[in-house]
Amino acid sequence: MILTIATTPFEGQKPGTSGLRKRVPVFQQRHYVENFVQSIFDCLEGFAGTTLVVGGDGRYFNREAIQTVIRLAAANGFGRILVGRGGILSTPAASNVIRVRKAYGGIILSASHNPGGPDGDFGIKYNVGNGGPAPEKVTEAVFARTKAITEYRTLDSADVDLDRPGEIGVGDAIVEVIDPVDDYAALMQRLFDFDRIRGLFASGFRMKFDAMSAVTGPYARQILERMLGAPHGTVMNFTPEPDFGGHHPDPNLVHARHLYDLAMSIDGPDFCAASDGDGDRNLIIGNHAFVTPSDSLAMLAANAHLAPGYAKGIAGIARSMPTSRAADRVAEKMGISLYETPTGWKFFGNLLDAGLVTICGEESAGTGSDHVREKDGLWAVLLWLDIVAARRQSVAAIQREHWAAYGRNYYSRHDFEEVETDGANALMAHLRDGLVGLKGKRFGALEIAGADDFAYHDPIDGSDSANQGIRVLFEDGSRIVYRLSGTGTSGATLRVYIERFEPDAAAHGLETQAALADLIALGHALARIEHFTGRRDPSVIT
Ligand code: VG1
Ligand code: CO
To answer: 285: alpha, beta or left, given left = phi > 0 and alpha = psi -120 to 50?
Structure first.
């Protein structure tokens, strides 16, 4: 029976860079999930009888939220609801299911790289029919709706057994529990030369993939160990745990330090990789060769044609604004377009749909292509493996040759996490106020060529997005970028992105922080970081 339940709005149900993210206890409040999901449905049109995809990264509260979404979706008139078995769907796999099953859209339950567990984070994100995150005009409409909602529709039906594959009726809808891995693995098989990668493993190539007790475990074991013949034990921490085993599922140099140390050890594996909570990020470290995500984007774009799925070449590259300009040099040399978008994968969707770009990436360990409409951690790992197998070279050699051909963009991000929101806002206001005065100023060898607050005009739908981060540009091509995170759940996080281009191959072997030392010091001073946040040192350096 359909129930109409009276409710009142919650404050702050505003989707950020990637959906609505809050602490678990916030989501556990009565009506909280229902209000947000009903607000999404209230902003959609013409979905009666269509298909909705639902799945998450397996974190704490995933199963409860899925049951709620199923009841609301059925009561609101969706005809078929596809759910990953066990409530599991990685973010890129969900994007793929939406596309291959021609669903109306999907709801992904995840807080991505944020910690999980009863006191951790949870999140809800709506993806549209192309498989990608809802564009800003949709998320803004949803937020407006959350402020005015008065009722939601649900059912008094029993919970669905998420562990039993097959179909079951819920109200007038059919819920279908699907295998979370199959479609995705088949897609990877079409894009890459599995025989060649199998040959690589058979030749003794050694790899470690850390699934970080998060969603990629089942995917990585199926693809790497079963289909590609990597030795058992290649995939570590492969069981998705509700609290990610108590770890932080962010595959960066702080939370995946052990992989870095392993790859740098004398007898370390040839290739180390990891993904985040929901499977859309990637960390790539060759033996004695850490690849920054910005470089990875450039190197994958330059070599993608070696993989069967991209043999025709790539149409263009898109990167988020703070991502280094290493990819720009590849695009220039290849004679293809390079698009610079605001942070967040939702800005790539239109460019991919229009066929203007094939490969996209962000400095935050996100890379992907037109095969889905999300960034895709395992995809990046497999493309790297296919390139290594095709070129018969180590990651270190590929990286060295790339820098020699294109120059090296030294790059680092300094995060100041959980600082006071007022201070962080004051810091950004201080920077904005000073923008006009910066041009022409000199600091030692560094001269400022210009500074602005990045704004993006979408060439496809004509929408504008302002205030996307402060850019300080230098005469020698160096950059410092400042922005506040839109994925945190407490206080504010300031991100400072620092980049310097080095054409001289003789100077490509420096330690990154040392190579950027003068820019880092200037970056801290220009924004008066200690004054506004009380912090001298960043909490995370990537
Ligand atoms: C961060 C990253 C951004 C990424 C987003 C979602 O956002 O900087 O590049 O798209 O996380 O990634 P922010 O606003 O905190 O800087 V994930 O893995 O959550 O889906
Ligand atoms: Co993620």
So the answer is: beta
